[in-house]
Amino acid sequence: MNSTARAEAFCRRFGLTLPILLAPMAGASAPTLSAAVGRAGGMGALGALLMQPQEIRDWVRDVRAESPGIFQLNLWIPDPAPKRDAEREGKVRAFLSAWGPEVPTSAGDAVPPDFSAQCEALLEARPTAISSVMGLFPPDYVKRVKAAGIAWFAVVSTVDEAKQAEAAGADVIIAQGMEAGGHRAAFHAETAERDLVGLFSLIPAVVDAVKVPVVATGGIADGRGVAAALTLGASAVQIGTAFLRCPEAKIHPAWADAIGRTLPEQTQLSRVFSGRAGRSVATAYVRAATGGNAPQPAPYPVQRGLTAPMRGEAGRQNDIERMQAWAGQSAALSTTAPAGEVTRRIWTEARGLLGT
Ligand SMILES: Cc1cc2nc3c(=O)[nH]c(=O)nc-3n(C[C@H](O)[C@H](O)[C@H](O)COP(=O)(O)O)c2cc1C
Question: Ligand 1: which of 21, 22, 25, 134 to mutate, most ligand atoms within 8 Å of CB?
Answer without folding.
Answer: 25
